[in-house]
Design brief:
Elements lengths: L11 H4 L12 H35 L8 E5 L10 E8 L2 E8 L10 E2 L7 E6 L5 E8 L2 E8 L6 E2 L8 E6 L5 E6 L10 E8 L11 E2 L3 E2 L7 E4 L5 E6 L17 E7 L12 E6 L7 E9 L4 E8 L4 E7 L13 E5 L3 E6 L4 E6 L4 E5 L3 E7 L22 E6 L5 E6 L2 E6 L5 E4 L19 H10 L6 E6 L5 E6 L6 E6 L7 E2 L4 H4 L2 E6 L5 E6 L3 E6 L5 E6 L6 E6 L5 E7 L4 E7 L5 E3 L6 E7 L5 E7 L5 E3 L4 E3 L4 E7 L22 H5 L2 H56 L1
Antiparallel strand pairs: 1-2, 2-3, 3-4, 5-6, 6-7, 7-8, 9-10, 10-11, 11-12, 11-13, 14-15, 15-16, 16-17, 18-19, 19-20, 20-21, 22-23, 23-24, 24-25, 26-27, 27-28, 28-29, 30-31, 31-32, 32-33, 34-35, 35-36, 36-37, 38-39, 39-40, 40-41, 42-43, 43-46, 44-45
Length: about 725
């Protein structure tokens, strides 16, 4: 419909609220024909796109893209039957566990993974046992996360923990495989707090350990929060890690979660083997701080050598190894060695013989030999036959993706921002229009081309890659003819003005980023082309959307010092929340003069100002009265419901809204103005009532005079009738 009437001067949206005769010159048959042609073209384009997508997918699969996003791979321990280049790998794909048998020498023929689980929830962190017969993994079942067992070759799934925790992860097995170490948030105050537990596994055949074990009751080790805990091959040393759960997404990370590793000795081994071994005297490996920016996922390679994923201070990222001396546990006996150099490693697994498998950030599966180094890296190509649940049609809740919305002053249209895109549509009917950010021309020079902060680089990348910028704060103007949008197409926030009908060319105000900053809030005037903007520097700006002229109205020195701006109905005042060092106050800005004044005296804080439609009162939330109540949970006094709604009279002659004039029942002089308590409106009403009374009196006098005239005329008529009747009676008597 938009293309059919494109040559008309009347906007589609304005015309649909007018008379239907506006579109009388276009016949219905022509509309139907054009609609059928348009649907046929769209259907053909969709079929061509789907065919191209299928061909691209097939080509990618032929080139080695298996079509599955692989995560958290685990390699099974080597056995006497397995060859040097053969290994069994268990990984997570599409929230399920799969196993695959890989031969590094024969990668020509694609193999098919075997599905191990069919869980109702998501599966996490598989861990293969020392004997290689079963896999321990975490899964969500019945609103809780527990540990489960499944045979490596496939079979029934068995639950081994019943802790009802929000978080649980298997960490490692003991040196003999009879104990399982895992981290859990059970018996903790918050799900973020974890501790290390040990779970003893009993086998029917303790020597072979080829059957499924029976899990005993878990025991808490009281080691505190841990993301890694593993015992070496001999069981003499234990590795303990914190903040080592994942790699950092940015290069040369230097934050507080860079990863810490401790080493402890087996202080008192239990000869009976019932309660496990005790590891004490943990010492932090401080020497790693001199070589690496972060350390993650540490594992034992042998009795003294450890492998971990890290990035050196020179920028080399991959798998590193180092050895810990037996006598000095916190000193490195030699320099760290880079085993596998790959910056895309997300998670990995090793076994004592040196076999390694890891998953990249792109979801690909790789194998390597730590003894041969980076030259032994090979991508595992397999034929994926999974259900591809991520490609299925999903029904999502739209409110999760709607970032912002606004309604025009007349209540006809609505604009929404969904995933950074601005769309508008009629509330009752009509098409939806999309407002794309203004892309700079090739010959246009950016204002921030010499900005050293990176905005010029961001704009260059977006321009070369033809990427779409992010839009925020779409607001209708006072006349509902334009939309004001904040976009970062130039690398920094700028304000764009689009026409509501999307037919005329939009414009960018080109406000320097040093002046505008990063927009945190934007409110438009209800009576003028002005915008009130609050940026990240806690500055209140008033911007003319026609010319781009910007004026600094107020500034706060506190973090997020101004917010919740509100225009008055007349468009001359702006009320906003101003944060001081001690409390929050309500301030009012006079847009005509630029003067500001504080209108509240807070006790704990005032916020969220809102104007009365007639401009007589200012409503706001305030915490002024404390009402202590006994709290059964805290065993003391609490202060609920601190904030309540308060009203501020903006003029002296405005009556208190709580003091209403009492009138008799049925008195018509009781009006809405008296109920609201506006003295000016009452005076005007009284004057109008007096004038109306005078008019009524004059009309009443005129009506009385007319009634008197009518009565005199009717009396004369009655007298004439009586005299006529008497004359008739006399004539009859004479006859």
């Amino acid at each position: 419909t938009h293309h059919i009437f494109a040559d008309r001067t009347v906007s589609m949206r304005a015309a649909r609220f007018q008379d239907v005769s506006t579109f009388s010159r276009v016949s219905p048959s022509k509309c139907q024909t054009n609609a059928r042609r348009r649907r046929r073209r769209e259907r053909g384009s969709r079929l061509r796109d789907s065919d191209n997508a299928i061909e691209a997918t097939n080509d990618a699969n032929e080139d080695g893209d298996d079509g599955a996003f692989v995560q958290q791979p685990q390699v099974a321990p080597s056995t006497s039957a397995s060859g040097e280049n053969e290994m069994t790998i268990v990984f997570v794909a599409e929230d399920e566990l799969y196993s695959i048998f890989v031969n590094a020498n024969d990668q020509k023929q694609k193999i098919r993974p075997h599905r191990l689980t069919t869980a109702t929830g998501e599966c996490f962190s598989p861990l293969i046992s020392k004997c290689g017969t079963f896999v321990v993994f975490a899964a969500i079942e019945y609103y809780a996360m527990e540990l489960f067992l499944v045979p490596t070759e496939g079979g029934a799934v068995k639950q081994i923990t019943y802790m009802g925790a929000d978080f649980i992860r298997p960490l490692s097995f003991s040196d003999d495989g009879s104990e399982l170490f895992f981290a859990s948030s059970s018996q903790q105050q918050t799900p973020d707090e974890t501790d290390v537990y040990t779970l003893r596994l009993d086998y029917k055949n303790q020597e072979k350990k080829s059957d499924m074990p029976i899990a005993m009751h878990p025991k808490k080790l009281n080691l505190g929060p841990a993301t890694a805990f593993e015992v070496n091959v001999d069981g003499t040393l234990a590795l303990f890690g914190r903040n080592t759960q994942a790699t950092r997404p940015w290069r040369k990370y230097g934050g507080g979660a860079s990863g810490d590793i401790w080493i402890a000795k087996n202080s008192c081994p239990n000869p009976q083997g019932k309660d496990g071994k005790t590891y004490t005297d943990f010492k932090r490996v401080d020497a790693l701080d001199d070589f690496f920016t972060f350390v993650s996922q540490p594992k034992w390679l042998d009795n003294s050598a450890m492998v971990f994923l890290a990035e050196s201070k020179q920028g080399e990222r991959g798998l590193w190894s180092f050895s810990v001396a037996d006598n000095a546990q916190n000193e490195l006996s030699r320099q760290p060695t880079l085993l596998v150099k790959d910056a895309n490693i997300q998670s990995y697994s090793i076994e004592p013989s040196g076999k390694c498998t890891y998953a990249s950030r792109c979801g690909h599966l790789y194998t390597a030999d730590l003894k041969k180094g980076s030259d032994s890296i090979q991508q595992v190509a397999f034929k994926w036959t999974g259900p591809r649940k991520q490609l299925e049609q999903r029904y999502v809740t739209s409110e999760h993706y709607v970032q912002d919305w606004d309604i025009d002053p007349a209540g006809r249209f609505m604009t929404t921002i969904v995933r950074g895109e601005v769309n508008s549509f009629g509330l009752w009917d009509g098409p939806a229009l999309k407002y794309a950010p203004i892309k700079p021309r090739k010959d246009e020079k950016e204002e921030n081309s010499e900005d050293p902060m990176g905005s010029a680089l961001c704009a260059k990348i977006m321009r070369e890659s033809n990427a779409q910028a992010r839009s925020r704060f779409a607001r209708f103007t006072y006349d509902a003819e334009r939309l004001v949008i904040v976009s970062d197409q130039t690398g920094e926030d700028d304000i764009e003005v689009h026409w509501e009908d999307n037919r005329r060319m939009p414009k960018r105000l080109n406000i320097p980023p040093q002046t505008l900053g990063r927009v945190e809030e934007m409110v438009l005037s209800p009576e003028a082309p002005l915008a009130c903007v609050v940026n990240h520097r806690a500055e209140l700006l008033v911007i003319d959307i026609n010319t781009g002229e910007t004026k600094l109205a107020d500034k706060s020195l506190e973090d997020r010092g101004m917010y919740q701006c509100s225009w008055s109905p007349c468009g001359n005042w702006i009320a906003y929340t101003f944060r001081r060092r001690d409390a929050e106050v309500i301030k009012i800005l006079d847009v005509r003069t630029g003067a500001t004044q504080t209108v509240t005296k807070p006790i704990l804080g005032d916020s969220c100002a809102s104007w009365d439609p007639d401009g007589r009162y200012l409503f706001f939330l305030s915490a002024r009265e404390l009402q202590p109540q006994y709290d059964a949970l805290l065993q003391g006094m609490s202060f609920p419901h601190l904030e309540t709604v308060y009203c501020l009279r903006l003029r002296k002659n405005v009556r208190d809204p709580h003091l209403k004039e009492i009138r008799p029942v049925g008195d018509e002089s009781y009006t809405e103005s008296l109920a609201l308590g506006d003295a000016d409106l009452d005076d005007d009403k009284n004057e109008n009532d007096e004038e109306d009374g005078k008019d009524k009196k004059e009309e009443g006098e005129e009506e009385k005079e007319e009634d008197k005239g009518m009565k005199s005329k009717s009396k004369e008529r009655r007298d004439k009738d009586v005299n006529g009747d008497d004359e008739d009676d006399e004539e009859e008597e004479e006859e």
